[in-house]
Structure formats: C-alpha cells, structure tokens
Amino acid sequence: MGTTLTMSVIVVVGTLLPLLVDPEERLFTRQGACICGGLGVCGAAFWAAAVALKRKDIDEEEASKIEMKTVNPSSIIDEETATFTQTPPPPPSKTYSTFYKVLVCIVSGILCTMLQFSFVFSSSLRTLASETYSLPPSRSASITFFFAITICPIPNILIPAYTLNKSKKLHLLYTSPSAKISALKCLTIMSIPWVIQSHLYGLSANSLLGEYGDAIGWPVLIVTTNVTGLVLGWKVLGEWEKAKEETVRWVIRSIGLSVVGLGIVSAGGFV
Questions:
Q1: Residue 242 neighbours by CB distance under 10 Å
Q2: Which helix (H) or strand (E) holds 38?
Q3: Which strand (E) or helix (H) includes residue 250?
Q4: Which of 27, 41, 67, 193 gives a 20 to 30 Å CA spacing to 159?
Q5: Is-contact 103 6, C-beta < 8 A?
Q6: HSE-up of residue 95 (Cα within 13 Å, Cβ side)
Q7: Where are the transmembrane segments (predicted)?
Q8: For 80, phi and psi rounded to 5 degrees?
Q9: pLDDT value at residue 10
Q10: Distance CA 4, CA 109 (A)
Q11: Is residue 222 within 8 Å of residue 43, measured between CB atoms?
C-alpha cells in the first residue's frame, strides 16, 4: 500500500511539474488536458493496484490460518508426558498513526521526483551546453545527469550506512561472504539498469517526444515500472499464488488501466 501511494505521488508530481512551470503555454492546452486525462486513468490504475495488494494480504492471512488449523495426526503430543517451554512474548512494535504513514509516503514520493526536478529546471543549462559545444538535443541532456547521478549516490550511501550501523549490522557488508556476493548482485542487477533507464528517459524526453516530452516520458517511465513489478510478481516470482481469483482480477484491471492511461498520455504529443 505504501509503495503504491508513493508511486502515485511520484507520477502525479513528476507529470504536472513541467506543465505547471508554464501553465498558460503548456497546462491549459489540448496537449496538457490530454496528458492530465491520461494521468487520471493512471491514478485509477494505481488505486486498483492498491486494492489488489490489500486483498492479497487478506488472502494470504486467511490461507495461513487455514494451514495452521490443519492438524497432522502423527504430530499429536501426549498431554500427560509433554512438557512445554513458555517463551516470552515479543516486545510490542512501535505503531504510527495513519496520518504519519501517509505523510511519509507523500514526502518520499516528492523526494523520488528529484530527477524530474533536475531535468525540468536545468533547461537553461542544457541550452548552454547545446549552443556552446554544438551538441544535439540527444546529448545535451547528459549535462543534467552528470550532476544528478554524481551527487545522488552520496545520501543514498550515507543513509543506509547510518541505518545499518545503528542496528549493528554494518560490519556484515564486509565480513560476511554471502553479503559481499549479494551486494555485488544488487550492484549489477539494480544499479546499472537504473542508470541506463535514467539516461534513456533523458534522451526520449529531451529529443524524441517533442515539446511535451518531459510531461509524457515521466508517467510512461513510472507507470511502466509499476506494471513491470506487478507482472513479474504475478507471473514470474509467484507472489500471488495464494491470492483469490477476484484479487488477481484487480491486478489485471490495474494493468489494463495503466495501458489505457499511457495511451492517452502519449496521445498528448499528437493532438
């Protein structure tokens, strides 16, 4: 639920940002209206995904209760000879209010849109690079990512390092062989594709999608990411095995709405 809400904030803020920079010329136009309409459909897709995830949790909880009620006759213990060791209950976990949880998701969504902020507000820098060095639009966006991707890893490294150190697990990163292998896998499987998709987004938004490229490319990027996660979890990773048919239908609805919404957003570049 939290991830879906955060992704919704990311796609809404990132899409509206370039339109709000010059609302009369971009937002209050046919293209802007089409993009906003498609954005609304994408919002419905995220809502359907949230419903599916909530129902999935309920289905898994019900399945777990059924499994616990299933008794294996060979495991019945003689009450007269059995001894039981009472384990202390786990300490109560800290609870947070719904307002606090929603606020964290909203702030996370806004911060995750910083790549779009850097792209939208660096137009003068890209123009300067293009005019000074005669760079084509497909290459002038690299100046934005040079600063964004160079500075971005610093807090992303310091914050997890602080968290791991606070939980006294930081040493596992350089002492545990399995942790070293996992870190290498994460670097290869996650970091490199993220850099590639960021550059591809800059290329498409700056030179391939026309005047509204930044407002069209961003929802395409984020919604496609969300759909990919749903499909992989559903068809490849088996995360929805215990989900009921109605729950899976909500997944299909979310994917269908995402496709329709992206189609409407993309049409904003042609109307």
A1: 16
A2: helix 30-69
A3: helix 245-267
A4: 193
A5: no
A6: 4
A7: 5-21, 27-53, 99-121, 141-162, 215-238, 250-270
A8: -75, -35
A9: 87
A10: 10
A11: no
Using CB atoms within 10 A of its CB, is residue 31 exposed (0-12), middle (13-18) or buried (19+)?
buried
Q: What is the pLDDT of residue 246?
A: 92
Q: Whose CA is closest to 11, among 160, 217, 180? A: 217
Q: How far is Cα 4 from Cα 40, in angstroms, rounded to an integer?
A: 15
198/196 Cα distance (integer angstroms): 5
Tell me the residue type at 108: S
Q: Is 168 left (phi over 0), alpha (psi -120 to 50) or beta?
A: left
What kind and span of H or E run contains 14? helix 2-21
Helical segments of 70-212, H only: 98-111, 114-120, 123-133, 137-140, 142-151, 153-166, 172-175, 177-186, 192-203
Assign residue 136 a region (left: φ > 0; alpha: ψ between -120 and 50; beta: otherwise). beta
Gap between the Cα atoms of 93 and 76, Å rounded = 33
Classify burial at 116, counting beta carbons within 10 Å of its beta carbon; exposed 0-12, middle 13-18, buried 19 or more.
buried
Residue 30 amino acid letter: R
Residues of the chain with confidence (pLDDT) below 50: 71, 73-79, 84
Handedness of CA 241, 247, 249, 253 (dihedral sign): negative
**Which residues are CB-neighbours of 239 under 8 A, at least 6 positions away?**
56, 233
